[in-house]
Amino acid sequence: MHTGSQLLDAELNEILAFLGKDLGCLRGKKLFITGGTGFIGRWLLETLNFANRVADLNVVASVLTRNPRKIAESASHLFDSNKLQLIEGDIRNFDFPAGEFDCIIHAAADSSAASGSNDPVTVLETSVVGTRRILEFARKCSAENMLFLSSGAVYGKQPPEMDYLPETYAGTPDIYDLKSAYGQGKRISETLCAAYAEQFKINIKIARCFALIGPFLPLNGHFAAGNFIRDAVAGKPVCINGDGTTVRSYLYASDLVGWLFKILLHGQKAYPYNVGSMEAISIRQFAEIVSSQVQPVVSVCIAKKPDSGIMPDRYVPDTSRVRNELKLRQQTDLHEAVARTIRWYKNLLLAGE
After folding, report:
1. CATH no. for residue 90?
2. How would you class 115 by CB atoms within 10 Å of its CB: exposed for 0-12, middle for 13-18, buried for 19 or more?
3. Does residue 293 lie in a domain region?
4. In angstroms, rounded to a whole number, what is the distance separating the alpha carbons of residues 92 and 86?
5. Per DSSP, what are the bridge partners of residue 282?
6. What is the pLDDT at residue 320?
7. What Rg, from alpha-carbon coordinates, does the chain have?
8. CA neighbours within 13 Å on the CB side: how many for 36?
């Protein structure tokens, strides 16, 4: 097993403990998963593989990917047994595998697609056509439950005077802003899920994911958190391209996975749940936390001065729904989440991975 995976054992044990008796609901199930190579998908696969190994969960998961060689090489330990199986195909037109599946987790999304402006047509097509294809597969394979991973991007720009975004907020992305293609695609996909749930009686659950942090977070993408951690671990200054006033929140990956499985098993049908942290923090404060978690401490540089006449942008969910209805709680605070993520990447460097 890769050293990087061994370092996750404590987090994976936490997930199993959090799920508790709900693990029994997954025992022996047959799953179909899209997006297994992404940040969230990788955590889902690590969790299932770990549960099979230490809890004899006996879950069999088929993982759709366009590049099976890439994931097989980077995470070969996941496929040492026949419990996790790779299926080559594009989400938009893959051939349906034979047989019935108990659960489907549709997590496919290009992590670089959030900007949407480079190729908005493909972003929209992948999201909408891909979701329609998965929904048709859900009909064919008689899935008991399906979980669709949506995004907080469906709300569009959060009003700066609104502290937290609730699921009931009716804002929308600007349809003429091509950067909104990702959010628009998720909105249309949610409508498709609601239509299939009603028309074809498919038990579809919806999780709107916000900003996340943890091992496997891309360090060279458009995520500020990943870029900050990359530079801090390398002993470089943590640099903010803006003025540092934008407000975000970050949910740790082990909390995320526990929440997703709880929503899959117990969430209401065609009823969205925000998945994220309510621990709001400015980008400047976040950068300072990252810089303080490495030794020696690195500096923080900010490109622009704040404009006192403009309220900061916000992107923070209201998670009252999952907290009240499903009794879910954030287990890992931000300081610990950052410390764990940095420790994981530093250990990878020491191990030469």
Report:
1. 3.40.50.720
2. middle
3. no
4. 17
5. 247
6. 98
7. 20
8. 33
Compare 2 and 157 and report the one with higher pLDDT: 157
Residue 53 lies in a domain: yes
- What confidence tens digit (pLDDT) does each residue in 100-124 have? 999 999 999 764 555 545 789 999 9
Mean pLDDT, rounded, for 268-280: 98
Q: Which domain holds residue 183?
A: 3-211+252-276+316-332
Measured from the Cβ of residue 27, the count of other Cβ atoms closer than 10 Å reads 12
Instruction: Count the alpha carbons within 13 Å of 266 in the hemisphere toward its beta carbon.
Output: 18
Residue 206, H or E segment: strand 204-209
Domain count, the chain: 1
Signed CA dihedral, 115, 317, 33, 215: sign only: positive
Give the helix ranges, DSSP H, for the chain: 3-6, 9-19, 23-26, 39-55, 68-74, 120-141, 181-199, 224-233, 253-266, 283-292, 320-325, 334-351
Please spell the DSSP secondary structure of 28-61, one letter per residue.
T-EEEEE-TTSHHHHHHHHHHHHHHHHH----EE
**DSSP string covering 121-168:** HHHHHHHHHHHHHHHHHHHHHT-SEEEEEEEGGGG-SPPTT-SSB-TT
The three-state secondary structure class of 292 is helix
The end-to-end CA distance of the chain, in Å, is 12
pLDDT at 220 over 90: no
How many residues appear in the chain? 353
Q: Please tell me the least confidently modeled range out of 114-123, 144-153, 236-245.
A: 114-123
- Model confidence pLDDT, tens digit, residues 17-71: 999 999 999 999 999 999 988 899 999 999 999 999 999 999 999 999 988 888 8
Q: Residue 221: its pLDDT value, please?
A: 74
Domain membership flag for residue 285:
no
pLDDT for residue 2? 47
- CA-to-CA distance for 288 and 315, rounded, in angstroms? 19
CA distance 284 to 163: 18
Average pLDDT over residues 131-146: 96
In Å, how far from its chain's centre is CA 341? Answer: 15
